[in-house]
Amino acid sequence: MTSDPLETFMTWMRVEQGRSRNTLAAYQRDIRAYLSWLHTQGSTLLVATPAHIERFVAHLRNTGKAPKSVARKFAAVRMFYRYLSQEGIRSDNPAATVDGVKVPSSLPKAISEDEVALLLSSVRGVDSFARRDRAVLEFLYATGARVAEVCNLSIGDIDMQDALVRLFGKGAKERIVPFGRPCHDALGDYFDLGGRPALVPRQWASREDSDAVFLGVHGTRLSRQGVFNIVRKYARLAGIPEISPHALRHSCATHMLVHGADLRVVQELLGHASVSTTQIYTRVDNEVLYEMYREAHPRARLK
Predict the structure, then answer these.
(1) Within 10 Å of residue 170's Cβ, how many Cβ atoms?
(2) Which CATH superfamily is domain 113-245 in?
(3) Which residues, in sequence order, are bridge partners of residue 109?
(4) What pLDDT, on the 0 to 100 scale, is given for residue 74?
(5) Which of 82, 170, 175, 184 is catalytic?
(6) I want to staple 272 with a disulfide (CB 3.0 to 4.6 A). Which of 30, 32, 223, 277 is the partner?
C-alpha cells in the first residue's frame, strides 16, 4: 500500500464528510495517539484486534482522561476502522464489537439572565478592541453560535439590513439565524470607523483573513483562544464565575425555552441534528422552575 491510511482518511473526512478544520485536527490528534499507543504494544493498525482497542480505552481511563475525552478518542478510532473496512484496507472492523464509552449526562452550564446582562455591560470604552469584544459577546448570546462558527464568520455571511446571519455548523450544514437590536447595534458600531477598520493590517496575510468579521490583534481571523479570552476577561470584570463561550450558547437556548420558545425552533437555531440534543435544555434548574411556578400558578403565593 503506497498511501498513508491516515492521510487518505483525513482527505475523505474533509472532502466527503465536510468536517470542519477543528474536527479534522481533533480526529488526527486522537488517531495518532492511538497509533502511538499501538506501537508501544508491539502492534500495528492493520493487525490490531478488538482486545487492543479495549485496552486502549482502559489505558485512557487509567491515565485520568475525562469520560467525554475517552468517548471522543474512541469515536475517532471507530470511525477510522469503519473507513478502513469500507475501503478494503482491512477485511474486518475490529472496533465494531467494542462497546461504546458511556458519558454521564450533565446539564449544560448556563448563566442567568442577570449575569448575562452584567457580562454584556462590563465592556467599557469605544476603542476598536472594546467594540469588537462587545460585538463578539452580543453575537454569541444573540445567535447561540458555536465558537468555530464565530471564528469562521465572513462579512458576506451577515445581512445587517434584515438582521440575519448565515452560520455553517457541524458537517458544513448551513442555517440562517436572526439577531436582535442589541447585537445589531454592537455589530454596526464595530463595523463603523474606529472599529473593525482600525484592526485592518497594512497588508492581509491571506484572502481568508480579509473576509473575516472578527479580527485579532495582528489583523488575522480571531482564533478560538481569542474568543475564550474575551469571554473570560469580561466574566472576571463582571464578577461572575469563569465561563466559556459555550456557556452563552447554552444560555441563549435555555432562556429562549424558559420564555416559551418552541423546542424545534430552538433546535433549528442552534443547528442540532436531533431534537433530543436540544431537549436537555428543558431540564432547567430548580431555581428557575420554582420561580416560574410562583409566577404562573394562581395558588402558588403564600400569604
Answers:
(1) 16
(2) Intergrase catalytic core (1.10.443.10)
(3) none
(4) 92
(5) 170
(6) 277
Does 249 qualify as catalytic in the annotation?
Answer: yes
Please say whether the beta carbons of 60 and 70 come within 8 A: yes
Active site residue 272: yes
Whole-number Å distance between alpha carbons of 291 and 280: 19
Instruction: Name which CATH class applies to 5-86.
Output: mainly alpha
> Measured between alpha carbons, how far is 99 from 109 in angstroms, rounded to an integer?
28
How far apart (Å, rounded) are the C-alpha atoms in residues 106 and 221? 32
pLDDT at 287 over 70: no
Q: Over the stretch 36-91, which tens digit does the pLDDT of each residue have?
A: 999 999 999 999 999 999 999 999 989 988 888 898 999 999 999 999 999 999 99
78 is catalytic: no
pTM of the model: 0.65
* Domain ranges (residues) in the chain: 5-86, 113-245
Q: Give dist(CA 260, CA 55) in Å, integer.
A: 47
User: For 5-9, 81-85, 162-166, 249-253, which range has the lowest pLDDT when averaged over its residues?
Assistant: 249-253
User: Could you confirm whether 131 is annotated as catalytic?
Assistant: no
Distance CA 87, CA 81 (A): 10
Which pLDDT does position 99 carry in this prediction? 83
Catalytic residue among 19, 146, 196, 221: 146
Alpha-helix residue ranges (DSSP H) falling in 192-273: 196-199, 207-210, 224-238, 245-258, 263-270
Q: Which amino acid is at 290?
A: Y
Rounded to the nearest 5 degrees, what angle is found at the Cα of 167, between the Cα atoms of 164 and 173?
135
